[in-house]
Amino acid sequence: VTVWLNGALVAADAARIEPADRGLLLGDGLFETLLCRDGRPLHASRHLARLRDGASQLAIPLPWDDDTLTAAMTAVLAAHREPASLRMTLTRGPAGRGLDLPTQPRPTLLITASPPAAPPRAPLRLCIARSTRRNEHSPLSRLKTLNYLDGILARREAVLRGAHDALLLNTRGALAEATAATLFVRRDGVWCTPPLADGALPGIRRALLVAHAGAVERTLTVDDLARAQGVFLANSLGLRAVAAIDDKACSALEGGLLDRLASSTDRRG
Amino acid sequence: VTVWLNGALVAADAARIEPADRGLLLGDGLFETLLCRDGRPLHASRHLARLRDGASQLAIPLPWDDDTLTAAMTAVLAAHREPASLRMTLTRGPAGRGLDLPTQPRPTLLITASPPAAPPRAPLRLCIARSTRRNEHSPLSRLKTLNYLDGILARREAVLRGAHDALLLNTRGALAEATAATLFVRRDGVWCTPPLADGALPGIRRALLVAHAGAVERTLTVDDLARAQGVFLANSLGLRAVAAIDDKACSALEGGLLDRLASSTDRRG
Fold first, then answer.
1. Which of B10, B154, B247, B265 is 20 to 30 Å from the Cα of A130, by its Cα?
2. How far is residue B50's CA from residue B204's CA, in Å, rounded to a whole number?
3. CB–CB of B25 and A89 under 8 A?
């Protein structure tokens, strides 16, 4: 297994993250997950733009240009037999203790590939998370940061309750998103998804479904789920139908719909 | 510089965190910061108890007993000329991609020492953070996790606004704490501190000040700051007087008060 770390391709078991890295010590960083096809990452320019925007908001330097990063991703993919996804992780790098930003940051950038997951399973059973809520008051709800523990807690709750995944409410009680995917709910014949102000991450797939598949942003509540004409989750890796939420069945989706939405958004530039 | 990593003392520049560590990739872990005196960490048993409690809540294994961890801390301290503080960092360790808990976790435990910081400066100037809020709806607000980006954002805002540190409001607009310290406000002749339900971390120093110095838990608002008879911040490393908040001066503290509170709580078992 080969990874790209700060400019060099290295064997994963030789790649070393320093114990003083603020990504490890403080969750001080960002990441992107990219779907790959035929040795190429999809929507690389959109992912790189989001990473750059997040780095700018957090004042983390990103001293590699897009050509370098694209070549790095291609090289990591070429070193794997059957890569299915790539992850780019950017941290503020090693520094002394405390929260103040280092005056001479040495950011860490790590690119890794993952093999395909198990083939898509049956439609998902979801629960509404009781253990935690998404904080729509924090700009972090709109950035793909390394601070993922609320999602981990909600996913764990889902598994303990016999579900595959959980939907998170925001602090006002509106729906925000699933632990690692955007929520789409069919209401009045329109696919609706929570607005960013409700705590939704600005997902790449989400943006494509809004721009090219007629989805609209709308505040959604648990009551909307009961009356929905269909529910699915979407992230960069794919779309998944939802069969039930808190043990109440959801309306079945039209056959082939998700495949069509997935391939049409995969193909978009 | 020597660190303790998963059972062994190693040179910091040889210590290797794996790129697949969930502490790095997802902020999936906890930490403790301990003040040290005469080669010994203060309140080690309280810090270890809090670490164990947090690990239990997050279902992260902690397969070292207190004697082993105490000996590890002593060994790290002995390897340093003038250690001022210790940090213990526990993560869920390396795993494959995704949020689901690994079935065979290999947790990472890292113990590092830091030299003394610059000597205590003048009383602090604080601001009320506008950039983010603390999420009192999440159990993470009551755990010392690696998800520290809200605090980093608020600290950065403070520095940009000419302050030393920021106070964070919770999502309801009550005061929660500073970026890395508990808030104490003198009202009606009593030292008050926000309750855990308002988003305050259950700090070790905080508990000692409540148990042994007459401080009480009380919901505090920005209005309370204007009428306060004194304000200070406290964490395991020490107590700091607050001179001004959002450019409004705070009442001066009685001379020697913080030194007395610090030494009396440092000494407690």
1. B154
2. 9
3. yes
